[in-house]
Amino acid sequence: YFIPKSLRKSSFTNLTNTRKRSEYFSPHLVKASVLLQRVAADQRSVADEVVVSWVRVLEMLMSRMSAVSRRASNLEKMKEKKNHRHKNFAAAAIKLNRLRNKAAWNRTRRVWPDGSQLNRKVK
User: What superkingdom does the record give (predicted)?
Assistant: First the structure.
């Protein structure tokens, strides 16, 4: 799992609001929680409450991690977009300047071979 430094030491706040996305869950955590749930279902004993609390903790961890990884992947996407935009920007600027120069050239008055002085478009 990649967890950014800024989020490593953060507290377990806003856990109830994080949407759970199974594709971001760590398989080990999922396995552990499934096992614990099975144990909880099998043995309704004194340890039952402990197991249930563990399941809750695991679920919290899972939702937290999914949120973190989602945030990380979004950051990566944004970085990619930014780089892409920068590349495109240079090409766009060149194109724009070409057009601008052409327009300026078309606006200039010149003396044409037939003696007229018009802002005529260059064919």
Answer: Eukaryota
